[in-house]
Write a structure and sequence with these properties.
By secondary structure, the chain is an alpha+beta fold. The protein has one helix and six strands; from the N terminus they run αββββββ.
Length: 114
Amino acid sequence: MSAMTKTPRILPERGSGGSLRPGSPRADRESMRRTISTLLSLALALLLQGCLMPNRGTPVFVDGRSGDYWSGRGLLLEVSPDRLRCHVAVRDRALFVRQPWVPCTSVHERPPGH
């Protein structure tokens, strides 16, 4: 028989160890790895899309004169040196987090717990 007429042998992927049986420790590890990977991807996507508020800042209320927000609850991130502009993080009506510079006259202290 010539080399051209032989059918190639299909080998399993390296390290696959054959098929996975449901309930086996290896299948459980694969399932857990897939779940963790999916959750991390989702968290990263939310973070990059602007759906998560930053974890720093002073809780403030931003009134409606400076924009169209879902609620006035926001975080004060920074104040300009001349104290005229404030950098805040606040949700807009589409529930995305925006971080605009607004006049400090529209930023008010928010009592704790509100």
